[in-house]
Amino acid sequence: MKRFIWLVPVILLACISAKAQEIPAWEISGGYSYLRANINNSPGKSFDLSGGNVSAEENLNNWFGGRLEFNAFNGGVAGQNVSAETISYGPVFSYRKFDRITPFAHVQLGAVHGSVGYLGISESAFKFAMTSGGGVDFNLNRRLAVRAEADYLMTRFLDLRQDNLQFSAGLVVHFGWK
């Protein structure tokens, strides 16, 4: 038995390297985003904005990576055209045990920019933002996936916290392999 103990690390290394070759080193995604803003206030003060998103993610191993994400939204609120943009970065935790789907969860910190009229502000401003949520990638093939994502977005304007919901759908392109 002692003669074969050296096989344990060799077998583990072979298993890890075999699985790691199927992990994309980078993921670039983009698509449509929808924002349901200010949901914690009375129903008349909530509003909807539409837009797009783009993100870049580096996978450090088969379950952990980092994502930089940018979202831009615009729409009409009380007869005024308003816009909001977010930029955030944070860790992503993926569960890569299936061939066709990859569920993930993330927490990201960053900033939100609101235009004049967004949440009633009188001049455009940058404020703190935090996003947490998750989604699933539906892998079409080795290089391409369809992503569906739902997030909670917390912002702070006018010294008040706003609770927002953000939904996204789009395409993911995988580059490089680990």
Detail the topology: elements first, then pairings.
Elements: H1 7-20, E1 24-37, E2 47-59, E3 64-77, E4 80-94, E5 101-114, E6 125-139, E7 144-157, E8 160-177
Antiparallel strand pairs: 1-2, 1-8, 2-3, 3-4, 4-5, 5-6, 6-7, 7-8
Question: Please, could you describe this protein's structure?
Answer:
By secondary structure, the protein is mainly β. The protein has a single domain (24-177), classed as Beta Barrel (Porin), CATH 2.40.160.20. It is built from 1 helix and 8 strands. An 8-stranded antiparallel β-barrel has the order 1-2-3-4-5-6-7-8. A hairpin with a 2-residue loop joins strand 3 (64-77) and strand 4. The chain is elongated and about 50 Å long. Residues 12-21 have low confidence and may be disordered.
Discrete helix count: 1
Question: How much beta, percentage-wise?
Answer: over 45%
Determine the mean pLDDT.
88
Radius of gyration: 20 Å
What is the number of independent domains?
1
Largest sheet: 8 strands, antiparallel, barrel
**CATH architecture heading:** Beta Barrel
Tell me the number of strands.
Answer: 8
Tell me the name of the CATH class: Mainly Beta
**Overall geometric form:** elongated
Q: Helicity, in percent?
A: under 10%
- Main β-sheet, spatial strand arrangement: 1-2-3-4-5-6-7-8
**Unreliable sequence segments:** 12-21
Summarize the helix and strand pattern as letters. HEEEEEEEE
State the end-to-end CA separation: 33 Å
Question: Which structural class fits the helix and strand makeup?
Answer: mainly beta
Q: What name does CATH use for the topology?
A: Porin
